[in-house]
Amino acid sequence: MNKMKNNFKSDKSQYEMFGFMIIVIMVVIVSVIFLGIYLKPKVPIAGEDALIGNFLSAATVYTTECFKDSEPNYRTLHELVKDCYLDSQKECGNGEKSCVVLNRTYSEMLKRAFVTGQGASISYYLLRADYYLNTSDSSTRQNNILTISSGNNSFCAAKKAETAPISLDSGGILVRLEICKNS
Amino acid sequence: MKPELSSKCIRNSKKSQTNIKEMIFVLIFIFFFFIIVFLFYITTTMSGIKTSVYESQKDRALMLVMRIADSPELSCGAGNSIDMDKLVIFKEHTIYKNFWKIDGLVIKKLLPYSNETIECTIGNYPNCNTFTVIKPINDSVADANFVSLCRTDTKNGYNYKRWELGRIMIYTSDTRNE
Description:
The complex is a heterodimer.
Chain A: H1 2-38, H2 46-60, E1 63-67, E2 74-76, H3 77-86, H4 98-113, E3 122-132, E4 141-151, E5 158-167, E6 172-181
Antiparallel strand pairs in A: 1-2, 3-4, 3-6, 5-6
Helix pairs in contact in A: 3-4
Chain B: H1 3-70, E1 81-83, H2 84-90, E2 104-111, E3 130-134, E4 140-155, E5 158-173
Parallel strand pairs in B: 1-4
Antiparallel strand pairs in B: 2-3, 2-5, 4-5
């Protein structure tokens, strides 16, 4: 009689354990599904990268007031970066130093293209032009040609960057624009 | 019926009732659990769909910007460039107004900078900075991208291509807050 009672109790416990296990398994499965949904890598917005990339490509062909020999042999911004790297004291046809014109043109361009500050969608930007022995290897960076920045780097909610390469006989120059979006 | 048997039956019946109650509780718990999970899933999916729609609209607009800049009617030869000499003529043609199915198309010269907006016409070109190809509708939103603007200029009797920086703005109906 006692044995039967014990068997009955054991059966009941087994059923309860089984039910409990089913619930635990269900909770685990659902949790895994939700974790999968949340941790799914987000597809980067192609448009945002295109914006910076297009700015850099449009900037490189920009006609500056610097000219070679005589007008209208105007130098593009791309060529000015090269000129500035090869000889920082080099003068344009109008008597100004190519590095000065380069800095002024890029600064003005960035100021008109990306408004920074409170209420603006962009909090900070940084433009750098650096010479690399090998442009595909970031550790070969040699010297900085140009650095322009504006805004406050501490309010960076999302960072986007693009580079534009300028090839030289040996090595190359990378113009990198980094933009921080406000939260 | 013996009294012993009767009390046993009652005890068994009570046990069964308890078992049924337990089962009902578990079923109710499982039912509500799935309802909560389902609602959570629907909310997450719906917010994801809204974000996806917004992002795809933005991407579509930005891709359209690039497509317009590369179209033979406006291109300057290089990629992502607009020939202002073509543009000033193009904006006068009304047949293109519905070609891209957008609510507005404006191209602005960013550099050389001018603090006042001067609409370009055949009469004042190139001393202007804004080309309104399609006048934006009031409730439309703009997506912008940068383009190279070129035009043929003359200096010391020589013709040359002058490249400037511009911004192309495409206006589309605002479905982002719906």
